[in-house]
Structure formats: structure tokens, C-alpha cells
Amino acid sequence: MFKTVLFPIDESRESRQAVETVSDIVRIHQSRLILLSVVESTADQPDAMSSPDAVANLLENARSLFSDQGIQADAIEREGKPAFTICDVADEVEADLIIMGCRGLGLTTEGASDSV
What we know:
Layout: E1 4-8, H1 13-29, E2 32-39, H2 52-68, E3 73-79, H3 82-92, E4 97-98, H4 109-114
Parallel strand pairs: 1-2, 1-4, 2-3
């Protein structure tokens, strides 16, 4: 049913919590797993995820985590606005499903403005 699953990740707790769901779905559907990390560098809000080394390390750790579960994952690193980049990559890889962590903010002003 889901041939290709795209899993955008960052260092958030919500990304880590979504790993089990991703693993289950990929195993059940024997899907191809693609990990994506988006580097968004902004001059006014520098953070660890704007470092290419930090992103490369995050992707490698995620690949290892899935590999330990017997799941092969491809990794993609991109630069840009996360929401747009995730959609662009989903189109490029023909993803059937995108799984992301959720902060549970709903469609409040804060949730809508800060979410992907």
C-alpha cells in the first residue's frame, strides 16, 4: 500500500517518538524509507540544526537506529523552508506517505505559525 515513506526528522522529542510508528508501517508494508533533514539557516535564529555537521550526524544516527531494526533507510539533506522542502522532496521521491512528529498544538495561532 505504501511503497515509499518519507520521514522528515529533526532533534525534537516528537521526531524520536515517531520512530516506532515509522518502523511499524515500513515493516508492515515493506516500504522504502527515506529520511529527510532540512537545514533552515536564519541569521536571527541560529541553532544547532543549521550546522551541516549536526544534520549529517542526525541522519547517520537515524539510519543506524533503523538499521538496528533491520530497516534500510536512504537519507536526504536539503536546505530551505521545512514545509516547502518536505513537499518538494515528497514529490521528487514519489512518497505515498509522510510521517512526522506532532507537538499537539492543533490549529491555534502558535501551532499554525510554527508547524510544518
